[in-house]
Design goal:
Blueprint: E1 4-7, H1 17-32, E2 36-41, H2 51-64, E3 70-74, H3 79-91, E4 95-98, H4 102-114, E5 138-141, E6 148-153, E7 157-162, E8 170-172, H5 180-190, E9 195-199, H6 206-215, E10 222-226, E11 229-230, H7 246-251, H8 256-264, H9 278-284, E12 295-296, H10 299-312, H11 315-330, H12 338-347, H13 354-360, H14 362-365, H15 373-379, H16 385-396, H17 403-416, H18 422-434, H19 442-449, H20 451-467
Parallel strand pairs: 1-2, 2-3, 9-10, 11-12
Antiparallel strand pairs: 4-5, 5-8, 6-7
The protein binds one RNA strand through helix 4, strand 7, helix 5, strand 12 and helix 10.
Length: about 475
RNA sequence: GCUCCCAUCGUCUAGCGGUCUAGGACGUGGCCCUCUCAAGGCCAAAACACGGGUUCGAUUCCCGUUGGGAGCGCCA
């Protein structure tokens, strides 16, 4: 049997990290088994579905490096197939028309629960044999009177529920629209999906869907329910408090490879291995190693993974990814200069995100470098004036501009001031040329900035020290 | 409320009856290195939710309790 998986998000909002992981698992499983991944947009809820959101999902998947083989298909465009299936079910009396109104249902449900009994549809219209001329009506699936609706879940193992606990549920609304469960089953059947890999929130819905497969006299696919990603404290992820969209992470400067590495390890493991490239994910991912417990997504781990990924990225690619962030910072297009390439290598060890990296690079990219107040107060006091002056003159006189010649100037000045500690001299210079008390090594930083700008900035600092 | 699911360090997890004085990673703390910040090196603290069984032997199997989650729509 050829493997076919599907990712079926509803296009309301952005691509959620939980959805992204589901997509990743489906992708990995399909690739691992030489199968196909289908992208299906479940847009039957027209009020909440938007075209922008669909585009956002497509963009997000593309950014993550998750490619698919068919689609995007839209569920809304398959309405005729859903209608046909319902008519077929009706014709074979596996479904029936129901005239009960929502209000009546609500009332009977309340009364039943008040009596301390469990509510499922009471079957009032079940054997009425209502025809299409019965007025406003919904359509219900006729469930077996007894027996289990069971399946062997690839993650949760033997699963199932008594048919009578579910009751005859609606598959077509009175306005004629097919319900989600019916639509999914029909679509998965038509698209010949072999493995349904989806969030564990669907685990409890599966028995009813199995009932639909049976009514349609078709074999269900294999189900694999993956544990939900939850927020801090094991609570439901909050869209307000927790970062949940992949766009958000992308904008904060996380790399797609770090995201997928992070996501794949939430609820899945391969021994003690922590780092997985997309190549490894598609070679190693297996449903048998997926956990059953819901898991929290730890942003600190993503941060660490991102740092690791930044460190391992080829320089050209890293620069290319950094450029947009630099442009945002500078308010103009930034071209990759040789100095920038050098700086990027100095910065990769110190940056958790591209946003951070761009920020560390601002001294090279921006012309105006305001001093950070605290740094200036601490390192650019009156007493450093002679140091700055001597450094300025010494550096300005250099013929060759490199770490060796620069370091020699530092040594001269320090010696002249009674073997002044390196920190006493490096910090003022650092603030003078970067505006901050933090940067890569001072020789490297000066080298990258270049003689003209370095000397110019020290002159400005001199002016600042003298006149405030 | 009902049905179902889950439960190892703060977090993600390894473990599939003896190899566990429970391993890894992130995070946290300390030390070293050091011109700042990182990085790096070394070290440390940190978990089998609880109670019963089964067994010669339970982190591993079974049952309860507790805690968390999902589902119970003419939403998807």
């Amino acid at each position: 049997m050829s493997v076919r998986t599907r990712f079926a998000p509803s296009p309301s909002g952005f691509l959620h990290v939980g959805s992204a992981r589901t997509a990743l698992f489906n992708w990995a499983f399909a690739r691992r088994h030489g199968g196909a991944l289908v992208l299906r947009i479940e847009d039957t809820d027209r009020e909440r579905s938007t075209r922008e959101s669909e585009q956002g999902i497509v963009d997000g998947l593309g950014w993550l490096g998750i490619d698919w083989d068919e689609g995007p298909l839209r569920q809304s465009e398959r309405r005729a197939c859903h209608d046909d299936a319902i008519e077929d079910l009706l014709a074979r009396e596996r479904a029936y028309r129901c005239r009960c109104t929502p209000d009546e249902l609500e009332e009977r449900k309340r009364a039943t629960i008040a009596r301390g009994e469990k509510w499922t549809y009471d079957g009032r219209c079940r054997d009425l044999g209502l025809g299409s001329d019965c007025g406003s009506h919904s359509v219900r699936l006729r469930l077996p009177e007894e027996g289990q609706l069971a399946w062997d879940d690839a993650v949760f193992g033997a699963s199932g529920q008594d048919a009578r606990e579910i009751g005859d549920r609606i598959i077509r609304r009175s306005d004629g629209a097919p319900l989600y469960h019916l639509a999914v089953v029909v679509d998965d059947l038509d698209m010949q999906i072999s493995h349904v890999i989806r969030g564990a929130d669907h685990h409890a819905n599966t028995p009813f869907q199995i009932a639909i497969y049976r009514a349609l006299e078709r074999d269900p696919p294999l189900f694999a329910h993956v544990p939900l990603i939850v927020g801090p404290g094991g609570k439901k992820l909050s869209k307000r408090k927790d970062p949940v969209s992949v766009e958000q992470f992308r904008d904060e400067g996380y790399l797609p490879a770090a995201m997928t590495n992070w996501l794949v390890r939430i609820g899945w493991s391969h021994g003690d291995q922590e780092v997985f490239s997309m190549q490894e994910i598609r070679e190693l991912f297996d449903l048998g190693s997926v956990n059953r417990a819901s898991a929290q997504a730890d942003p600190a781990k993503l941060s660490s993974l991102n740092h690791h990924t930044i460190g391992a990225l080829p320089r050209d690619e890293l620069v290319a990814r950094l450029l947009p962030f630099l442009a945002a910072l500078a308010g103009r297009t930034v071209m990759p200069s040789p100095e920038l390439l050098t700086l990027v290598d100095l910065l990769r060890e110190r940056s958790k995100t591209l946003v951070e990296m761009a920020d560390h690079a601002r001294f090279l990219v921006l012309d105006e470098i305001p001093y950070e107040e605290k740094a200036a107060r601490k390192h650019l006091g009156k007493t450093v004036e002679p140091l700055l002056r001597e450094m300025h003159d010494g550096l300005a006189a250099l013929k060759a501009w490199n770490e060796e010649t620069i370091s020699a100037v530092f040594e001269e000045v320090r010696a002249r001031h009674g073997d002044l500690g390196m920190g006493k001299l490096a910090q003022p210079i650092r603030v003078a040329i970067t505006g901050r008390a933090v940067s890569p090594g001072i020789f490297e930083t000066l080298t990258v900035l270049g003689k003209t700008r370095s000397v110019g900035r020290i002159a400005e600092a001199l002016h600042y020290v003298r006149h405030g």
